[in-house]
């Protein structure tokens, strides 16, 4: 008897508005994020600590809706490259049967878009699609706790440089 396939998982909606200039694209939410219905909900993920340090406000102390509002106020959008996939656990290497989000819609969702930043290698696999948008496309070091080869300070320098280059500071 073969094992049944994992269920098809559905990602989170985009956090993008007309003011968005930079969109950070993750790969697909991890288990903690899907359970919470919140981006980067794993307590060891460094996404919120990085933004908190860059902007000088402790976003982790705010309710989730206020974190998202602060992102919008700073012209930052957030989404994932995959709309659906099958995956056991949270590791990107376990993603199977992935279906891309409508990344081409980013230009309509964010008319002032100047850049897309891929949060890690799995997200950057869709770089061909994001480069077709005609904006700057960069790969940032993953904020995942699985990316232990980059220190927080090294990640911070890379993320800050992209935010500065696109007027998000």
TrEMBL record:
Protein name per its UniProtKB record: DNA-deoxyinosine glycosylase
Annotated Gene3D superfamilies: Uracil-DNA glycosylase-like domain (3.40.470.10)
Organism encoding this protein: Piscinibacter gummiphilus
